[in-house]
């Protein structure tokens, strides 16, 4: 193995992980993509590579694109299976929180609604300034077609921004989600959740200390039903100016659920229990007290 290549790869690892995370929306999958890319790169001849960073970005993007396409072909794993895997360990919670905060729940929700090719074109061009000539090569299309992919994705991203001054809709949906969770009403949860809803729970929010990502209304509804007992200790509050759910134990906030809304349904849920992340939230209880 070329030790120089190994050292240079490690120098670019944070950048490559950021690319993979924005493509995949999961720190665990991002790590897998970067590792897979390294296994390929370690066997490649890089002597004639002029811009190693750009070349590594392309390799990681190809791996991430394949993972996105594979994800679309398979059904979401049950939550029980994900929790059972947590004994194997996972990414550092600090890094998971930083990655999630750097992208934002609302944007991740929109990205999840794009096709793999649209997501790749938008992420690589708009977030990492990769030229359309290189993006077209990855998705096996012309530069003009790659530009169109990014343009469509950009319109979707901008068009999915929540309208200002509409807190009542979010409050109604959060109230409905909490009521259905408390009673274990699976069908009511399905009605309030977007079919492509994504739930992300940080490593402090689940047993075993490994972040969990759930996709799809059924997977998220099953998880909510399983949390019925915890929901009884949860109340609606205002977090960073929007309706959210807060669990208070012994007078301290222990878990916060923030929501992203698309249309008349919940499209994203971020479950935060990391003390450092909780400390950065502006939480106002229903009685108006700051927590």
Characterization of the model:
The protein is α+β, with helices and mostly antiparallel strands. The chain folds into two domains: 3-159, Butyryl-CoA Dehydrogenase, subunit A, domain 3 (Up-down Bundle); 167-284, Nuclear Transport Factor 2, Chain: A, CATH 3.10.450. Helix content is 56%, strand content 16%. The chain has helices at residues 3-24, 27-41, 52-73, 79-84, 93-103, 105-112, 116-127, 132-139, 143-159, 167-183, 186-192, 217-226, 228-231, 275-279, and strands spanning 193-201, 212-215, 234-239, 242-249, 252-262, 265-272, 283-284. A seven-stranded mixed sheet has the order 2-1-6-5-4-3-7, sandwiched between helices. The chain is elongated and about 60 Å long. The model is unreliable at 75-102 (pLDDT under 50). Interacts transiently with the RNA polymerase catalytic core formed by RpoA, RpoB, RpoC and RpoZ (2 alpha, 1 beta, 1 beta' and 1 omega subunit) to form the RNA polymerase holoenzyme that can initiate transcription.
How is the secondary structure organized here?
Layout: H1 3-24, H2 27-41, H3 52-73, H4 79-84, H5 93-103, H6 105-112, H7 116-127, H8 132-139, H9 143-159, H10 167-183, H11 186-192, E1 193-201, E2 212-215, H12 217-226, H13 228-231, E3 234-239, E4 242-249, E5 252-262, E6 265-272, H14 275-279, E7 283-284
Parallel strand pairs: 1-6
Antiparallel strand pairs: 1-2, 3-4, 3-7, 4-5, 5-6
């Amino acid at each position: 193995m070329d030790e120089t290549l190994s050292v240079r790869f490690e120098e670019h690892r944070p950048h490559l992980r950021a690319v993979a995370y924005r493509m995949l929306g999961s720190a665990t999958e991002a790590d897998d993509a970067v590792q897979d890319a390294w296994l390929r790169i370690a066997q490649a001849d890089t002597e004639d590579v002029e811009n190693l960073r750009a070349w590594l970005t392309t390799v990681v993007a190809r791996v991430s694109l394949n993972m996105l396409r594979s994800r679309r072909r398979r059904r979401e794993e049950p939550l029980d299976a994900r929790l059972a895997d947590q004994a194997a360990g996972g990414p550092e919670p600090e890094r998971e929180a930083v990655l999630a905060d750097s992208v934002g729940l609302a944007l991740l929700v929109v990205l999840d609604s794009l096709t793999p090719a649209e997501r790749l074109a938008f992420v690589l061009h708009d977030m990492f300034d990769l030229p359309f000539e290189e993006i077209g090569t990855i998705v096996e299309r012309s530069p003009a077609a790659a530009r169109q992919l990014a343009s469509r994705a950009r319109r979707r991203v901008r068009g999915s921004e929540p309208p200002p001054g509409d807190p009542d809709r979010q409050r109604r949906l959060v109230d409905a989600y909490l009521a259905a969770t408390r009673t274990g009403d699976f069908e009511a949860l399905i009605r309030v959740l977007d079919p492509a809803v994504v739930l992300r729970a940080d490593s402090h929010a689940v047993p075993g200390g490994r972040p969990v990502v759930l996709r799809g209304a059924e997977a998220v509804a099953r998880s909510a039903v399983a949390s019925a007992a915890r929901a009884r200790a949860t109340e609606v509050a205002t977090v960073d100016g929007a309706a959210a759910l807060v669990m208070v134990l012994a007078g301290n906030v222990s878990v916060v659920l923030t929501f992203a809304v698309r249309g008349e349904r919940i499209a994203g849920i971020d479950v935060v229990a990391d003390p450092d992340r909780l400390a950065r939230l502006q939480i106002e209880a229903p009685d108006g007290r700051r927590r």
